[in-house]
Write a structure and sequence with these properties.
CATH architecture: 2-Layer Sandwich
Order of helices and strands: HEEHE
Strand order of the largest sheet: 1-2-3
Structural class: alpha+beta
Distance between the termini: 27 Å
Number of helices: 2
CATH topology: GMP Synthetase, Chain A, domain 3
Strand content: 25-35%
Number of domains: 1
Radius of gyration: 13 Å
Shape: globular
CATH superfamily: BolA-like
CATH class: Alpha Beta
Length: 87
């Protein structure tokens, strides 16, 4: 990962959630010209963690946001989350 934002996000998620699957994608280029694009990047996350077991999707998303902290401070405008449990 050459993108410092992706590296920071990956580090925080790995430390907090110990995922067995973590895929981060920078979709910023798809949003060029969008008003929010000036405020930071657009990212897509697929994450699978045992820490999500027994949690509703909204609670999983909350854990992700807690792990990441202040997204605007690191240059994230939008984050799409696919939070999965191990099968």
């Amino acid at each position: 990962m050459n993108n410092p934002i992706l590296s920071l996000l990956e580090e925080r998620l790995t430390r907090a959630l110990a995922p067995d699957l973590l895929e981060l994608r920078d979709d910023s280029a798809l949003h060029a010209g969008h008003v929010g694009a000036r405020e930071g990047g657009h990212f897509h996350l697929v994450i699978r963690s045992k820490k999500f077991v027994g949690l509703a999707p909204l609670a999983r998303h909350r854990l992700v946001y807690e792990a990441l902290g202040d997204l605007k401070a690191v240059g994230v405008h939008a984050l799409s989350i696919d939070a999965r449990i191990p099968s």
